[in-house]
Each structure stands twice: as C-alpha cells, then as structure tokens.
Amino acid sequence: MLEKSFTKAANAVAYIAGMPFTFIACVAVVVIWAVTGPLFGFSDTWQLIINTGTTIVTFLMVFLIQNTQNRDGVAMQAKLDELIRISKANNRFIGIEHLTETEVENIRKTCERAVRRQARNAGKKEQPTTGD
Fold this sequence. Notes:
This protein is mainly α. The protein is 77% helix and 0% strand. It has 4 helices and no strands. α1 crosses α3 (44-86).
C-alpha cells in the first residue's frame, strides 16, 4: 500500500517538476525573493528563507527523482532483456546491468572488436573480382 502510494506520488512530482511551467514558477519565486531584498535590507532572515526553501526542495526531489529513475531503468532493462531473449542475440547480455563496470567494459570492447571484424569481412565480400 505504501509503496504504491509513494510510486504514484513520485511519478506525479517528477512529471510536474519536469514541466516548463514549474521552471517558470521557480524562476518567478527567485526573482520575487531577489526583488524583495532591499525591502528587508538583505537581512540574514531574508537569505535564510531562500536557502532553507531550496535546500528542502532539493533534498526531497533527489529521492523522488532517483526513485523514478530507478524504476525507469529497471523497466527498460526488462524490456531489453525480453527482446534479447526472443531474438537471435547473444543471451549472455541478459542481466548485464548486474556486472561490475570492468566486466561491462570488457563486453563492450568485445562487441566493438566483433563489429570491426564484421565490417572488414563485409568489405572483403563486396570487392569486385577481376577474373577476366
């Protein structure tokens, strides 16, 4: 129950946070805060308002956005794994996201070598024969 509620809230907040209107509203808040500086004599309290507000929003947004990114990443990986599983692709790539960075880099280098080898072989096949 809590997980579903959190997921819905995280999705809603992430969606709203990514809208142009939200950015414009945030810019407006900062402009209003800056314009009111002289009215409050650029006091410590005036500075504390923006510092506290932005810190709280940033702190909470980090967790919400990370949550949505984690779910999006897992969903994308599951979709890719399913495509690999049903195709003629190499099934050893399924679950690659669980490997270390070094292991993934080694697989990437192997794939690059295979692409270069395939390109060389394709180039050899396409060369015209001179057997007059």
